[in-house]
Amino acid sequence: MAEAEKKCPKCQEKVKLLASVCRHCGYEFTAAELEASRKLQATNSKVGLGCALVAIIVLLVAFLGKPETKTAPSSSQTNEVPSKAGEESSASSESSPYADETKQYAWISVGEEQIKKLLKDPDSATFQDVHFYSGGGVPVTCGEVNAKNGFGGYTGYERFVAAGTLIAATESMVEGGIGPVWDKYCVKAPTDRA
Question: Which of 17, 72, 83, 115 is most buried, judging by how many CB atoms fall within 10 Å of its CB?
C-alpha cells in the first residue's frame, strides 16, 4: 500500500503525509498543518481497519460457509418418541460444527486475548457480556471491554468483535463503529451455549 502523501503549499510537490519539512524546497509545515496531517492519517487508519474487518469477515463467510444443518429423521422413521417442547434433540446439537461448549469457551478466550493485544494497557482489561456466536454463519466472540487509556484512566465499556486469531476490533477502532458487523455476526445459534 502506498504511503499517504500531501502537496507542499510552496512548490506543489508531493511529500509524505507526516513530513514536517518539504524535501524539495525546504518549506517548514506549521503546527496546524502537521496536526491536520496527523488527524487525516488517524482517520485513514480507522477507515482502512473498518474495511479490513468487513473484508475478512466476508472472506470467512465465503470460506467457512453457513454451517450445514442436518434434518433429524422423523419419529416415525426412527421409532423414537418425539422430544418434549422446549427440549433440543441431540441430532440438532450434533449438526453444528460449533456445538461443542468447550470449544466455544476456548473461542471466547482466544477472542479476549486478541482484543487485549489492541489495548494500551492489556492488564487492565475487564470484559462483560461476552458470548460465543455462530448464528451469523461465522464463529465470533462478541462483548464489551473496558481498559485504561494512555493517561491511566478507564475509557468505559465499548463493544468488540473477534473472529479467533484472524481479526479483532473494538467500537472506537472502526470509523462509524462496528454496528453493522455486530448486527450481522453477533447472532446466537441454537447450539451456542457459551
Answer: 115
Q: How far apart are CA 173 and CA 45, in angstroms?
A: 9
By residue count, the chain amounts to: 194
- Whether residue 142 contacts residue 130, with contact meaning beta carbons closer than 8 Å, is answered with yes
The pTM of this model reads 0.54
Q: Give residues with Cβ within 8 angstroms of 129, minimum separation 6.
A: 143, 144
* Mean local confidence (pLDDT), 37-51: 66
CB neighbour class for 124 (10 Å; exposed up to 12, middle 13-18, buried from 19) = middle
Query: pLDDT per residue over 110-121, tens digit each?
Result: 999 999 998 999
d(CA 39, CA 50): 17
